Amino acid sequence: MQLTDNTLLFYGGLLVAALSIAVMIILLIGFHVKRKKLESKLSDEYGKKEK
Amino acid sequence: MAEVIAATYEIIDKIGSGGGGIVYLANHLRLNKKVVLKADKRHMNARPELLRREVDILKNLTHAYIPQVYDFFVENETVYTVMDFIDGESLDKPLKRGERFTQPEVIRWARQLLQALEYLHSPTHGDPPKGYVHSDIKPANIMITPYNDICLIDFNIALALGEENVIGRSAGYSSPEHYGIDYSSGLDGNENSSQSVTYANTEKTALANDDDSTRTVAAAENEKTSGTGKRTIVPDVRSDIYSVGAVLYHLLSGQRPAKDAKDVVPLSDGTVSPQIAAMVTKAMSLDPNNRYQTATEMLYVLDHLYENDPRTKRFKRMRAAAFSVTGVFLAAGIFTSFVGLKRMQASESSLKLSEFSQNALDKGDTASAIRLAYEASPEGDLFTPAASSETQYALASALGVYDLSDGFKPHKTLTLPSAPISMALSPDGRTGAALCSGRMVVFDTDTAAVSAELNAGISARSRAAFLDNGRVIYSGQNGINIYDTKTGSDKQLTAHNGIFTVSGDCLRAAVLDKAADTLYLLDISDGSELAEVPLGGRKTPGIENDIFVNASDSILELDNDGTSLAVSFSDGSLGVYTFDGAMEQYDVVDGSYGFKKLSGGFYENYLAFSATSDEISVFVIIDLLTGEQTGGFQSEDRTFRTSTDKDGIYINTDNFLSRIDPVTGEQTGLITTAEKVYSYASENGNTVISSDSAVVFFDSNARQSGRMICGMPNEHLCISENTALAGGNNSPDVRIMKYDERSENNIISYDISYPHNEARVDEKAKTAMLFSIAGFRLYDLNSQIIAEHSFEDYESIHDQQYIRDESGSYLSVIYRDGRVCDYSAVTGELIRESSGEIPDMSLNEVFYTDSLRIEAPLHGAPAVYDIKTGDKIAQLEEDAYLTYVTQAGDNIIAQYITTEGYVYGTLMNEKCEVIAKLPYLCDVIGNDLIFDQPNGYLRKTRIYTTDELRQLAEKTIMEV
């Protein structure tokens, strides 16, 4: 398939979006783990968070 | 025996004592429940009823972390308060033991303590509603239950009663206000400042004595406001806050706070969390205005430790930043993709419209082609890309800006109710008439607008013909009709229903009435019958089944004045009827030959016809005056067709069409084509033929002057003045073509008999040179020959190049032996002769533009390479030989020559995509294009930008 500028824009945009989503998922997991660690640390410092 | 108080409470044990009294563990005799009895020997100033009311309020205080007060009574001048027994120990005990507590534990207790204070402080108790200050918060007054919860005890009822002379003071835990010190003036409370020191000596003593007990301070020791600037400080909610802070301080650090609030060393970040340290520090601010103003406020801090922790904030910031950045990329990606998609869709739509435009142009509908090409090329914006090469090509083609040829060109297309059976054009070419099944359509050839649609006969031999510019005679439903285009009247000429023919002078008509089997000669002016000829049973082709018969395979023709009529019959015979005086009839061809197809007519006094059987086809010319055959021929493998009009006799076979002299037999070719001729029409030197896929025009020199691809034969052709019509048996579309003359673009005219391969114009556009290896001819702009030269030794010429440089314009002739002769393009004189290297005989040529290298082999398609990268970026046309490449601005122009000698150019963009075809291109000067038209004109136009083409299209559409 001949890649025109418009095709590059379309697929390039999709690629960037897909990579962004992938990075977001990785970030979500990473931050989730980090949040758990932080909460554990804060829990050690301040006690369990009361509702 | 145990002591019983108030006949209800049996003293079990003494569990505590202090400045405020003694605390007993007692047993409620009736409830059999352990209670605490607090005996307070201080004198109460309040009236009994006030006391009772306050007790009632206190009894209603219900909180998880405050002991329930059950009762209050006075006995033996001792005030007893009965309250819940709280199991556990007060916090001062483990502190004294040196026990340390974890921060989470302290925070938990702090939260409970503040909840209790929040409840206590809230002005919702009693009527009128009010809140209560504890005023003596210290570890000793905080119980730790077996469940590890706190319970705030030793609520000072006296303070609740507003007894100003009863204030609990515990060194280190009591706020400055407890000592009558007011830091709220904004000063630092420097004891040397006379304004800040508000406490009396007794208070000072109290501070110095390191007393942990509650003291009673005489009201008189606190100076009242009496205009001296000092006032009575009463502990309030903020004082309790201070005490809470002090308790937390002790619990966290293991050190009791300094008695003097100014000497308190703030908690360090190393031992406790910074938030907690800050909270305690704020709670213990000297100035009550700088502390937490309410327990709720301080509780809020504890409830939001997680959120307000710097690490949490940093985490949230990082997370927000990370997701923001990723979100931006995601949004950018989605937006970019959306833009790309929109642009792809727009491109696709544009491409489709360009195709539709090309299809419309092929069909001859120029107006639609322009409109579609215009729609295909919107102005570019973010979502709409600039016009593609296909769109630019469609636009240029539809507008015909680079087609400078004179000739018939597609004008409009009219769609009939069904495929035409017969068509006719008015003598001035402005009105057309088309007979289709059951309908006669009259239309304007300029606008293609239908001016009338009439009922007509459905026979395949139905006809329409113009008598003059305003009247059309046609096969009506029930006879022969005449329609007047000017008045709109439609009158029946005769009720005789059948096929008809009209004399050349349009004064007489002959009608073959199929029902009556009779020929009638009519006067067109009034429809009167001039003659009646019974056919006596002789049948004409299709007379019985006239739906599918081929009308061109039979003859029914009147001569110019309507005195002779030729009729072919089904048996293959051809009869002539004369009406000049008495009616006579004779057969020119009898039925014995078995001819099946006959065609022909009258020209002057001659009858010319073709007759074809299964074995032979003949062509015959008969002089009707003498009755003798003056010409003719026959063929066993060809089929002849003959027609006549006022201009002559025409003979057609296969790809051959000529006009034949009836006397000499000399033939003048009207066309030169390799295509089979299906139909033809000719007038005023212009001839139009239909091949199986195209309509082709030829000028008076039999040179092709126009071509329109149709994809099918057009059996019905008409040509009159500047208009031509083309229609086929298999399509309801009628193509209207108009003669277009582009003389306004003329540079010079020249004798077309002068043979040349190339034409160039000098750099000042003052002269034009036509040249080939045989020689050259130089013209001025008045089309006068300035010079002419023949190359005697043309066989040794290797190449010729027309050069425009700083020295001027000249023709450089390069010989195989290396000689180079330069001839001036202004005077034609030899200006230079030199010897050089023997030229490279290879026929591969290389051309250069600013950024491209084009290699043109003798065979195969030229290839285009990027000069910088060497990458191949395009392939040019393969079916013709590339002769010349030049750059014009951002555009590239290539010139080709076909094997038939047809020279044309292509206009390309920087990617070498073709954006316009340039028929007969011969030269490029800057932005100007020079065309060498085959009819002997050099013409000039310029390169149009896409915007200019769009504007032109818009203007054309508006005009329509």
List strands and helices in order, with pairings.
The complex is a heterodimer of chains A (51) and B (960).
Chain A: H1 5-46
Chain B: E1 4-5, E2 9-18, E3 21-28, E4 33-40, H1 48-59, E5 69-75, E6 78-84, E7 89-90, H2 92-96, H3 103-121, E8 142-144, E9 150-152, H4 157-160, H5 201-208, H6 237-253, H7 274-283, H8 295-303, H9 305-308, H10 310-363, H11 366-375, H12 389-399, E10 407-415, E11 420-425, E12 431-436, E13 439-444, E14 450-455, E15 464-466, E16 471-475, E17 480-484, E18 490-494, E19 498-502, E20 508-513, E21 518-523, E22 529-534, E23 556-558, E24 564-568, E25 574-578, E26 584-589, E27 597-603, E28 606-612, E29 617-623, E30 628-635, E31 641-645, E32 648-653, E33 656-660, E34 667-669, E35 679-683, E36 686-690, E37 694-698, E38 704-709, E39 716-720, E40 723-727, E41 733-740, E42 746-749, E43 758-761, E44 767-772, E45 775-780, E46 785-790, E47 797-805, E48 808-815, E49 819-824, E50 830-835, E51 845-848, E52 852-856, E53 863-866, E54 872-875, E55 881-888, E56 891-897, E57 903-908, E58 914-919, E59 921-925, E60 928-933, E61 937-942, H13 946-959
Antiparallel strand pairs in B: 1-2, 2-3, 3-4, 4-6, 5-6, 7-8, 8-9, 10-41, 11-12, 12-13, 13-14, 15-16, 16-17, 17-18, 19-20, 20-21, 21-22, 23-24, 24-25, 25-26, 27-28, 28-29, 29-30, 31-32, 32-33, 33-34, 35-36, 36-37, 37-38, 39-40, 40-41, 42-61, 43-44, 44-45, 45-46, 47-48, 48-49, 49-50, 51-52, 52-53, ...
Helix pairs in contact in B: 3-6, 3-8, 6-7, 10-11, 10-12, 11-12, 11-13, 12-13
